[in-house]
Each structure stands twice: as C-alpha cells, then as structure tokens.
Amino acid sequence: MGAPELKFSTSRIDDALARGARGAGIAREDAMLLMEEAALGDLLEAAARLRDAGRGRIVSYSRKVFIPLTHLCRDYCGYCTFRSDPKPGHAPYMTPAEVLAVAEAGVRAGCKEALFSLGDQPERIFPEAREFLTRHGYETTLDYLAAMTLLVLEKTGLLPHANPGVMGADDLARLRQTNVSLGLMLESTSTRLRHKGAAHWRAPDKAPALRLCTIEEAGRQRIAFTTGILIGIGETLAERVDSLFAIRSLHQAYGHIQEVLIQPFRAKADTRMANGDEPSVADLQRTLAVARLIFGGGVNIQSPPNLVSDDYPLLLAAGINDWGGISPVTRDFINPEAAWPQIPTLAARARESGYELRERLAVYPEFANAYFIAPELRVALARHCGNDLYARESA
Predict the structure, then answer these.
(1) Which of 64, 277, 309, 335 is most buried, most CB within 10 Å of its CB?
(2) Mean per-residue pLDDT, 326-332
(3) Helices 40-55 and 2-21 meet at what angle, rounded to 10?
C-alpha cells in the first residue's frame, strides 16, 4: 500500500513544480505541498530556472548609508535589539547635523541610497520624544522624518528610502515627495504572534491588518514599495505561506511591490527570544524557492547575505535576484552582530556562481518611471541612473 501512495504524492509534487515553472504563480495548495513535501533539490532547481527566465543572470544590490533616525519605539517585539527606551544622556533622535554627517560620509564612499530606519511612533508613549519634536517644530516622528529625508536629498543628492513603520494616507503622500521608495515589513499575517509571550506581544503596530492597510494605501498612491516576511518567529508553515499570498494579492491589485524580502530570524542576547531556534539555511532556501514560484519570475526577491554568514551564495540557488542594501560606511543597525560582506567579495562570489553583480538604486529599474516617482524626485533620480536605469557607474 505504501508504494502507490508515494508515487501519487510524487506525481502531485511534479505537477505543482510544472505549474510553478510556467511563471504565472502557483495556488496556495501547491505552495503548501511544495513547502512541506518537495525534495529540496527539485524545488531549488525549479525556482532558479524561473528566476533566470524572468530576471536573467543578474543579482543586484544597493550601495547605501544607514541612518537610524531614532531607536525609540512603542513596540516591544520579542526579537528586536534596534529599539530602545529613552536613556539619560542619550538624545532621542539624531539631529539634522548628525543626519547630514552620516549622509555626507555615504556620498564620499560612493553610496546612492540613504536608508532611514526608525522606531514606530515613539511620541505616543515617550515624553522625551514629544519634547524633542516640539522643540524642533514637529508634531510627529513622521513629520521629522519627512524633513530629514528632504534635507538629505537637497544637501547631498542621496536618494532616500525610509522604513518608518505603520503610516496613514497623509504620511505616505508627504513621504512620497522625498523618498524614491518606501518600505514596511509585513513580517507575518499571523495574529497568534500577538498573544502574550509571542513575538509580537506588546507590539501594537505589528497588527497584520494595520500593516496590510499601509501596504495597500502605498499601492493606491503609486509608491514603489518594499515588504516581506520574517521567518522563524513562531509562525507555522501555513502562516508563512499565507503571508506571502497576502503580499501577492496586493501586488496583483496595484503592481507596486518592488521587492519581496525574506529574512530569517536571528536570536539576539537580551531579548525575549534570545534562546529561540533560528531557521536553517535549508529552511530559508525552501521558503525563498516557494516564494519565487508564488510570485513568478519577474518579481524581485531579496534575502540579506549577512544573515547567513559565508553561506550566502546558496541563496542564489533558491531563486533570489537581489542582496538588498550593502553599506561600505555604516553597520547593519537592525542586525549589528552580522557584518555585511565587502562589495568586491560579493561580486566575486556572484561570478563564481555564474551571476553578474549590478548596483541598483533605492528604486528598482522597472519602477524608476513617472508612474511611481514623484515629480520632485525625478531630476535627483536621473543623476544616478544609467541608460538601463541601474545605478550610474561612480567615478
């Protein structure tokens, strides 16, 4: 009785892989079957072929400078070391002069992107944040962010990309004028993760509905948007797949998801999840490959190379086509324990795997057009664009 059942299962898997290879995306039933039962080698081969058909043999990255505008955050996620509460002797926000100093260092190092990261709505719970903002003439952190992205754009020419958390329609409209793209990690659609003791307990801004609303509003406003999932934070495989399908649904509706980021959880000391189990490289590969088959060949799928140590070329075999932002100036403030690879090393290892490393901008080439880019940004963007809309080669 065992052999016929195995043959039937193998046939179902082969059929699912064949549907994925057509490039139009697979159904949830296929995604779950492949996530749970497909041989990893077969799955990787299908995903890599689809990526090559849709994106070619190019793997991209953005040369960025990382500006952590504030570490204050009203969310207390179980895995985060970026956020902090106010500390005596520590300013709650970077000052304009500090922001410019980091941006100018980025210019000297040939960066094109200024990545702004910050906590979510700290002024809602911290009087120190409210006092700083009021003293500088701002009502909210997002108001201050808009001013700082404009400052960097005008004074340095770097192209801002901000990841500020949950945003409303007015916030998105204002930030669209100073950012060539914006981002917000969905992380997961699982509401279980908000239960007491789970990853998103005491994190009001990690409510999936709020984050999906922000991503959808960005689509309505024609904003090139980066989002993705965080794996290994307590979600089931079904919840992981459902999160990917939630992103795909919004992209099908608005066509604005410029990048799907799949990031593995990494346990960090002094967090509630310090002893949590990290996803293996094989688990990450499987999720990336299924994501590629869900989204098809044309969507940009990214996973950070610094979170898998020297094993990062293995992610190319899983169907990614982008490494994300790499900074020659600043560390990864979200994962400070994980150093970025040197860009020449990244290029060499890409060549060894049969791929060409290309520098892109904070907005991907296919999104660097008048539909997605506000008029106020087009001249600044053109300065950095080559003929193929990848980054112009630096002198």
Answers:
(1) 64
(2) 87
(3) 10
